[in-house]
Amino acid sequence: FLKKNAVDVDDCYRAVKLCNKIGISAWGSFILGSPEEDVNDIVATINFIENSGLNGAGVYIACPYPGTYLYLLYKEKKYIKENITWADYVVGEYDNVRAIIRNNYFSSEQLTEINIYINNYITHFLNNGEDLPGLNHYKEINNILKNRTIWTKEKTYWKIKYFFNRILKKI
Questions:
Q1: pTM across the whole model
Q2: 86: Cβ–Cβ under 8 A, 6 or more apart, which residues?
Q3: Distance from C-alpha of 20 to C-alpha of 53, rounded to nearest angstrom
Q4: Fewest beta carbons less than 10 Å away: which of 63, 64, 76, 144?
Q5: CA 69, CA 120: separation in Å to the nearest integer?
Q6: Residue 80 in 3-state DSSP?
Q7: φ and ψ of 119, to 5 deg
Q8: What angle do CA 20, 8, 55 make, to 5 degrees?
Q9: What angle in degrees, to the nearest 10, is found between the helix axes of 9-22 and 39-51?
Q10: Do the beta carbons of residue 60 and residue 29 sit within 8 Å?
Q11: Segment 115-132, tens digit of pLDDT
Q12: Nearest alpha carbon to residue 122 among 94, 87, 86, 81
């Protein structure tokens, strides 16, 4: 969306493969929340992160700043939360960031929860060189949309491991 389809996904796979081949660490940045983005688009993004060979990734929620094209577009569609202040424009640790936008398919709260899910169960492990949990992302995101998070034994294991690793890093 933001690149107006100027970037071909197959080219991105080839670029990552080439970086890996010549020893360059490949990292990617991804933005959630374009107006037409749906579950299938988000799962495709997750699949790229998991399968492309990236060494790390950052996933963020679109944050349209006043005066930008994105701001005008979201404001016209009434996708920006009401009564936001500059304090709502937070960039930093992903578990402190809350979406100030929604799109055609997701509320701001759902975008926030999807972003937290991706960062807890994909980018955290990828960025730390750990095995990815191998969860069914389509199912997990649909559970978020239904406002119910199912804590399977496998997911609980990964959540405990994640928090344990965060505590160890602070020590």
A1: 0.82
A2: none
A3: 8
A4: 76
A5: 31
A6: strand
A7: -70, -35
A8: 25
A9: 20
A10: yes
A11: 999 998 999 999 999 999
A12: 94
